[in-house]
Write a structure and sequence with these properties.
heterodimer, A: 108 residues, mainly beta, B: 11 strands
Chain lengths: 108, 115
């Protein structure tokens, strides 16, 4: 089945810094999503982005489907951005597989 | 956006009892729902795919008789952990898609503790 790899596994930022999170996938995908898991466990949808680029405030994402990777950009990070960021994808069936996540901590 | 609600958010039970977790799509019809399990500081692991009106499809290594999944309507799927043991303690999260293999929306999750 599809493999989803995320990097880096852990990231510590000073408030105000920018960062890039990466997601590599092993096969062509039908969809690609980015989530933020908050401290209570809730998964927040950030982007549904099988290809192309999207922006939402300080966050943006780019998926290059032909090269099998997606990037999540966080600009001017805030302490509330802390948490775990997951990418997840499926290949056209119904099974969506998650990467291991990037654990982000933003220091005040 | 699509809203998925999960209940209960927390449950504590004694070993040997059964626990039911409900997952509802509040503003859309979900022909397919998914159940995930998450261990502390780990990623989400797909347990099963639940299709309305038919038997769930379980992932390899997931015990069908331990984790009973029912999807009786287009807005409700349930996960029953039968004869729960401490090793079943975990965070269980359901999700649903709008229109098949599209964007996933997740419930709030249910934290199960088996004493």
């Amino acid at each position: 089945g599809i493999q989803v790899e995320q990097s880096p596994p852990d990231l510590i930022l000073q408030e105000g810094a920018n960062s890039t999170l990466r997601c590599n996938f092993s096969d062509s995908v039908n969809n690609l999503q980015w989530f933020h898991q908050n401290p209570w466990g809730q998964l927040i949808n950030l982007f549904y982005i099988p290809s192309g680029t999207k922006q939402n405030g300080r966050l943006s994402a780019t998926t290059v489907a032909t090269e099998r990777y997606s990037l999540l950009y966080i600009s001017s990070s805030q302490t509330t951005d802390s948490g775990v960021y997951f990418c997840a994808s499926n290949t056209g069936g119904f099974k969506t597989i998650f990467g291991a996540g990037t654990r982000l901590f933003v220091k005040a | 956006g699509a809203v998925v609600s999960q209940h209960p958010s927390r449950v504590i039970c004694k070993s040997g009892t059964s626990v039911k977790i409900e997952c509802r799509s509040l503003d859309f019809q979900a022909t397919t729902m998914f159940w995930y399990r998450q261990f502390p500081k780990k990623s989400l692991m797909l347990m099963a795919t639940s299709n309305e009106g038919s038997k769930a499809t379980y992932e390899q290594g997931v015990e069908k008789d331990k984790f009973l999944i029912n999807h009786a309507s287009l807005t409700l799927s349930t996960l029953t952990v039968t004869s729960a043991h401490p090793e079943d303690s975990s965070f269980y999260i359901c999700s649903a898609t709008v229109g098949g293999a599209g964007e996933l929306f997740f419930g709030e999750g249910s934290r199960l503790t088996v004493l």
